[in-house]
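We emphasize that the prediction below concerns an isolated chain of 157 residues; any contacts that depend on oligomerization or on bound cofactors are therefore not represented. The input was used exactly as deposited, without trimming of termini.
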Amino acid sequence: MGLVEALFYILPGVFVVVGVLGLVRTLRRSSEISRTWRHGRTAEARCLRSYTRTSGGAGDTSVTTTLHHVYEFTTAEGRVVRFDEASGRSTVIEGDFVTVYYLPERPEGATSQPPAPGMLAVGTGCTVAFFGVFIVFALVFMGVAHFMFSAVGEFGP
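Result of the prediction step, given as a token string:
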């Protein structure tokens, strides 16, 4: 097996690993948010800060801007928790009070997003489908490469 042939196995293998990690992360966060909405507690939190984070923009790439909020609340046990949440509501500004949902055993994983199980399911489903197609494409690419290298090997010297 030469270097070029190895690359046709290693690179798609890396893509599969990245896809599986993305899939696991998506499912874990979705499950956590769902559990928080169903079994968690609520508290009143104050928005301490809001800011944007940009990415991209180098060369001809588009710029993506994500709105973040930093919230602080006190749990039922009296613990003060501060957390940063991405993709928050643009109508929330510094000093506003919002309801947050949190699990008593992990309050730093709180969310200010109001319960919307249907939207969560749709978003998770689309992300899972994306990663699924990504993984299948990489595996099919590896299979086709293997078939082509095998066929060339049969006719080689």
